[in-house]
Amino acid sequence: MSRVRVLVGTRKGAFILESDGKRERWDVSGLHFGGWEIYHLKGSPADPNRLYASQGTGWFGQLIQRSNDGGKSWEPVGNKFVYDGVTGTHLWYDGTPHPWEFARVWHLEPALTDPDTVYAGVEDAALFRTTDGGQTWHELPGLRTHESASSWAPGAGGMCLHTIIQDPSHPERIFIAISSAGAFRTDDAGKTWRPINRGLRSEQIPNPTAEVGHCVHRIAMHPSRPGVLFMQKHWDVMRSDDAGTSWQEISGNLPSDFGFPIDVHAHEPDTIYVVPIKSDSEHYPPEGKLRVYRSRTGGHEWEPLTKGLPQRDCYLNVLRDAMAVDSLDSCGVYFGTTGGQVYASADAGDSWTPIVRDLPAVLSVEVQTLP
Amino acid sequence: MIRVVLPAHLRKLAHVDREVKLDVEGPVTQRSVLDALEASYPMLRGTIRDHVTQRRRPFVRFFACEEDLSNEAPDAPLPDTVATGAEPFLVVGAMAGG
Fold first, then answer.
1. Which of A179, B22, B24, B55 is most buried, by the most CB atoms less than 10 A from its CB?
2. What domains appear along chain A, each with residue ranges and CATH number?
3. Where does B2-93 sit in CATH, by number?
4. Per-residue CA distances from A79 to A103, A133, A369, B46, B58 (Å)
5. Where is pLDDT greater, at A130 or B97?
6. DSSP assignment string, chain B
């Protein structure tokens, strides 16, 4: 029977949860890296026992950890992230030029076919890659040196590159997103990039329809249909049917279209999930009710999923990297909260149960479906 | 023999449970001690000082002989008692975070 492994990054370390395909009983391993922020950990699609973790603190900086045994043991690998060439400046919060400064790795995206190749999205925004299992990291500088880069500015969480999506049908195509510069796409394996923000509208920037400057929170794609992208923007849930060239709003009947994560059902490319948050200045669910919203129509029409989720006095948040799905026949959906719970649904969102609770604030959730 | 005391997180990272003992050739300075430390424990590279600038990370402090040496020049000699191993060189995570 298949198994599921859930990788949880938190403010104070990492946890690994495993279950059989029933997803009823969970073994929790951890705390790994106690006291360190684990922004993200993720397994290689080519070798599920190869895991990578982004570990850091304000005191001792950035580390990258690698596991070759599914998280039972870890070893630190290379942590030298140096921008390639002249770093230049972006805009600071006060509108003045500010030199690019490496702060942390937000997201690690192992390559689809090679466990030694991993992409790293970092703050200040740039894309790095290793091809030797994390020992050395090299920037793909074409993104950071894009002609618009001097106008990029940080969001409240820093100027982070937080989303990396590889197109399985087009190996040289990668989508990334930066808060708050927007979404970009390369069609030549990272040499050149183009902004893909047409159709986005952000009232928080001087020109609401500018080519760059949008605070994209998350993008999701179903691998069987890589030209279709779903986006949770700072405000607005969006959809593109042309690989990001243009976007249309699909917020529909959501109680709020502010939020962070968005994900796609493993077997139904038009079934998508978001977690509405009241507003950008009130990072908690509307009415104190934790509700996942599901659309089975690729947007516009949304239904609240509440069974098993707290429907009163709930004021936590769900961060952008903290939702994932498994690929079992009955698709499992998982998300972690800043309140320290990881909720799981083994029935595509119809019902939920906390599979672990009272963890530190959850920063990221990834899921591996294992044979 | 130079004695170096690491903060708990870095001891765990380096898989050491007590102070570290290092042989340092030539003048005993912050730089030569940290060079020797990182040569013996490569996983510490980048955690105490920046990979490129080699400057001390902002929330790391260096103490010895009840003195704060954090802002001393990296090539300034450390106290004789550190150089002889009578006193340890302390790498400390700064008090921060409220």
1. A179
2. 32-337 (2.130.10.10)
3. 3.10.20.30
4. 12, 12, 28, 7, 18
5. A130
6. -EEEE--HHHHHHHT-SS-EEE---SS-BHHHHHHHHHHH-GGGTTTSB-TTT-PBPTTEEEEETTEE-TTS-TTSBPPHHHHTTSSPEEEEEPS---
Taking phi first (over 0 means left), then psi (-120 to 50 degrees means alpha), and beta for anything else, what does residue A145 get?
A: alpha
Name the minimum distance, in Å, from the CA of A141 to any CA of chain B.
18
Q: What is the pTM of this model?
A: 0.97
Residue B98 has pLDDT above 80, yes or no: no
Cβ contact A119:A135 at 8 Å: no
Instruction: Label the pairing between strands A3-10 and A362-370.
Output: antiparallel
A-chain residues near B51 (CB < 8 A):
79-80, 82
State whether B9 and A36 contact (CB < 8 Å).
Answer: yes
Contact A335, A321 (CB under 8 A): no
In sequence order, the β-bridge partners of residue A14 are A9, A32
Query: Which residues contact residue B71 at a Cβ distance below 8 angstroms, ignoring those fewer than 6 apart?
Result: none
What is the torsional sign of CA A351, A357, A359, A361? positive
Distance CA A231, CA A218 (A): 6
CB contact under 8 A, A76 and B51: no
pLDDT digits (tens, 9 = 90+) for B23-62: 999 999 999 999 999 999 999 999 999 999 999 999 999 9
Q: Residue A1 has what pLDDT?
A: 75
CB B86 within 8 A of CB B5: no
Q: How confident is the model over A69-89, as a mean pLDDT?
A: 97
Return the SS3 of A287: helix
Q: Do B10 and A60 lie within an 8 Å CB cutoff?
A: yes
